[in-house]
Inverse folding.
């Protein structure tokens, strides 16, 4: 006789690990956790070790909220079905403090990366979640002649003092980009100025693209701003300046 083999999958829950996460304190989060059950059973989601201010929807598996405390978190998301099956995934979640209008901005750096293009930094396996170090700056300027073969990211929030048109400049050695968001959301940031080669410290006029177009900003709103720099060898610097409506250029 011919026998038929039927495979029965019991409690086969599959969960996709989202990988290391990096968020900014005070910026909203929306992270879906993807899970499925081979038998089509109903799934229930839970999580432990979430950054303060975040929660997971038990039905959809979407993690939402606004991180309220900076720090490094080990997060575990778990899924159970209605027949007793379960699965889980663990990942690191870094929440970074980037200032709240108090005149400080976060600098991060990644070492041991050759090349002078910003893409040499952004394509590195350690970017953006594993910087070699970080500190807080009181002006939008990194130390000059600091090291070789590294990349820098300086980022935080911009609080316009008055409503009107603002102009921005960036200077660096070697390549760099300046990005500005339309609001406090980092993913909406786009490049507004760049250095295609290198400049001396605070040399604002070597390349036309170092200067942004005039950008209208609203007083009382918070805008995400970010500068990326890639240094090869030799001298190095990075600084950003702006001009407020009716004011002088300042770093």
């Amino acid at each position: 006789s011919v026998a038929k083999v039927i495979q029965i999958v019991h409690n086969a829950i599959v969960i996709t690990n989202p990988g290391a996460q990096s968020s900014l304190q005070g910026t909203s989060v929306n992270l879906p956790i993807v899970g499925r059950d081979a038998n089509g059973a109903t799934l229930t989601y839970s999580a432990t070790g979430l950054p303060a201010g975040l929660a997971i929807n038990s039905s959809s598996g979407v993690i939402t909220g606004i991180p309220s405390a900076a720090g490094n978190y080990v997060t575990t998301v778990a899924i159970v079905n209605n027949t007793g099956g379960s699965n889980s995934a663990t990942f690191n979640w870094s929440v970074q403090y980037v200032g709240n209008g108090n005149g400080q901005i976060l600098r991060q750096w990644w070492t041991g990366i050759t090349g002078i293009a910003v893409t040499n930094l952004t394509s590195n396996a350690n970017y953006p979640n594993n910087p070699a170090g970080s500190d807080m700056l009181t002006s939008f300027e990194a130390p000059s002649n600091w090291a070789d073969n590294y990349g820098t990211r300086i980022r935080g929030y911009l609080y316009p003092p008055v409503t009107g048109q603002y102009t921005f400049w960036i200077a660096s050695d070697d390549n760099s980009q300046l990005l500005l968001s339309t609001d406090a959301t980092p993913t909406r940031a786009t490049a507004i100025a760049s250095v295609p080669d290198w400049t001396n410290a605070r040399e604002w006029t070597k390349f036309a693209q170092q200067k942004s177009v005039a950008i209208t900003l609203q007083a009382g709103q918070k805008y995400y701003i970010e500068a990326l720099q890639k240094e090869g060898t030799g001298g190095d610097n990075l600084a950003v300046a702006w001009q407020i409506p009716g004011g002088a250029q300042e770093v």
Observations:
- The first strand starts at residue 13 and ends at 16.
- Residues 3-10 have pLDDT under 50 and may be disordered.
- The radius of gyration is 23 Å.
- The chain is about 0% helix and 45% strand.
